[in-house]
Design brief:
By secondary structure, the chain is of the alpha/beta class. The chain has eleven helices and 14 strands. It folds into two domains: 122 residues, 3-Layer(aba) Sandwich (Rossmann fold); 164 residues, Dihydrodipicolinate Reductase, domain 2, CATH 3.30.360.10. 29% of the residues lie in helices and 22% in strands.
């Protein structure tokens, strides 16, 4: 029997792309009541003015965090940029649960955070309480967590593809190369020259070469499974599309493992995971096949090079790579069906 309990939610950072998708998804969840939309720079504005596509929703106007009666909030969905989320979350009452989509609680070592994000963490005492929110691999810990740190979009696509293979010792941990591509929405909604239409359109360019901030997050999780430190070769690219993410992982097979064995391991690992789909052999994952959905498509291919394989994963960076995964974690935290509010199929073409 479906639960009828209502969870009162606030969206922190409601004027960004992840905030918008969070509102879009949460507004149709039968057990969520959105009671507050927080966006400092747009305080006082109705939602329809900031996001006309959400104008049909009867939701409160945007406000600042100090205008909220937190005693009437059960859960906060955090959509603030990195470096600003930890200070805001530290102010919240302990009774409020948090599903954070920023990078501020993903790294378990505050020194690593300071190194990669250019500033000290203002709430290091909360890091130990945060659970890494890759739903398919941390469900049991997520259930009881107060703070869930949703993975970055690149780590989501990469880790879903590689964690089961490394855990099964089917690939070598010291030889992983990742070629990743993302739509421009991954850069956020603030004005940046490289994501202007005339700069990003009709072109493809790498960025963050050798120093992208998602690297330590990926290495942290791969290392936890491998039992020792893992160093990867990771290069992201900006693709001329609004949303979508494709990660092509080049791996060296361990022992007598084969591409077929990799496919079998992935299929077994995600047999009960509703949103991870191992595509048919010969089918190539593509961003247009997951657009607007919470699905991750994974394909495995034999390389021409002996003892190597290619693992390709595709997600929507704003859904499975952010707001959708946040809602999936919310469902686990509150004991709802994991798919609740996320039933929409990909939008194609």
């Amino acid at each position: 029997m479906a639960s009828t309990k209502t969870i009162k939610a606030a969206v922190l950072g409601a004027s960004g792309y992840t905030g918008a998708d969070m509102i879009r998804l949460a507004a149709r969840h039968p057990n969520i009541e959105i009671v507050a939309l927080i966006a400092k720079g747009h305080a006082g504005q109705p939602l329809a003015q900031v996001f006309p596509h959400l104008g049909s929703l009867e939701l409160p106007a945007l406000v600042t965090s100090d205008q909220i009666d937190w005693s009437k909030v059960d859960v906060v969905f955090g959509g603030l940029p990195h470096g600003t989320s930890h200070a805001e979350i530290a102010k919240l009452p302990q009774s409020i649960r948090v599903v954070d989509m920023s990078a501020d609680f993903r790294l378990r070592d505050p020194k690593t955070y300071a190194e990669w994000y250019g500033g000290e963490h203002s709430a290091p005492e909360l890091i130990k309480d945060a659970v890494y929110g890759l739903t398919e691999h941390y469900r049991n810990k997520i259930k009881a967590a107060r703070i869930v740190a949703c993975p970055g979009c690149y780590p989501t696509a990469v880790l879903l593809a590689l964690l089961p293979l490394l855990k099964a010792k089917l690939i070598e941990a010291e030889d992983i190369i990742i070629d990743a591509k993302s739509g421009v929405s991954g850069a956020g909604r603030t004005l940046k020259q490289n994501i202007l239409f005339s700069e990003a359109g009709e072109g493809l360019s790498p960025y963050g070469i050798g120093n992208h901030r998602h690297v330590p997050e990926i290495e942290q999780e791969l290392g936890a499974v491998a039992g020792s430190a893992v160093t990867i070769n990771f290069t992201p690219h900006l693709a001329p599309m609004s949303r979508g993410e494709l990660c092509t992982c080049y791996v060296r097979l361990a022992g007598k493992a084969s591409a077929a064995a990799l496919r079998e391991a992935l299929a077994a690992s995600y047999e009960t995971s509703p949103f991870v789909h191992i595509v048919e052999e010969g089918t190539i994952p593509a961003t247009q096949h997951v657009r607007g959905s919470n699905y991750c498509h994974i394909g495995v291919f034999k390389d021409r090079l002996e003892s190597r394989a290619i693992v390709v994963s595709a997600i929507d960076n704003l859904v499975k790579g952010s707001a959708g995964q946040a809602l999936q974690n919310f469902n686990v935290m509150y004991g709802f069906e994991e798919t609740l509010g996320l039933e929409q199929l990909p939008l194609f073409p």
